[in-house]
Amino acid sequence: MTDALPTLAVEIVSDLVCPWCFIGLRRFERAAAAVADRARVVPRFVPYRISPDVGPAGEDYRAHLLGKFKTEAKLGEVWARVADVGRADGITFAFESIARMPDSLPGHRLMQCAQAEGAPGVAQRLLGALFVAHFTDGRDTGDAAVLRALAVEAGLDGDRVDAVLASDAYGGEVFGEMKAMELLGVRGVPAFIVDRERGASGAQPVETLVNFFDECIASGAGVTT
What we know:
Layout: E1 7-14, H1 19-34, E2 40-47, E3 59-60, H2 61-69, H3 72-88, E4 100-101, H4 105-117, H5 122-136, H6 144-154, H7 158-165, H8 171-184, E5 191-194, E6 198-201, H9 206-219, E7 223-224
Parallel strand pairs: 1-2
Antiparallel strand pairs: 1-5, 1-7, 3-4, 5-6
Helix pairs in contact: 1-9, 4-5, 5-6, 6-7
């Protein structure tokens, strides 16, 4: 019975505007399902900001990325590569429909709220919804109304969401978590960490994550019974 299985705790470090983090989440979910007869894999989501200089109003999406990739040709190559990889994982990336590069801080604060106050599974549903809204639907996930709708649909109380978004609630937790990851040596996302010492970096193939989970299960790292 699943109740008798050990629990493997995995920290997933990601940013809400990182396409590889979306791919990483979907691969994590498949890997967790693949070891479901050996352990119950429980994620804890840790924030990271790949564009910390983006302010509350956000920026033009294409202009922001051109500042990084320099040319339209290079940007097109990156988009095409990510879209091809995502398609194999059941993800539709609609980069051309994204107008704004949002500030991911409010979304990260809601993710912290979901983990602290939400029922089991709420945070994972919210993270998936944030990725779909941004990358597939082209919605502005820096907009409070969009964030509220996604959070409520994921299972958070609407009044509580309003209170969090209208304040700096969970901001300290977000920055504290990011500092801890910096001290741990995390320099890119996604990252999958167990016991703050074992890890897999990048959007690893499902098979690699399965092997990583099995190694942790066998050694007892991150495992509780």
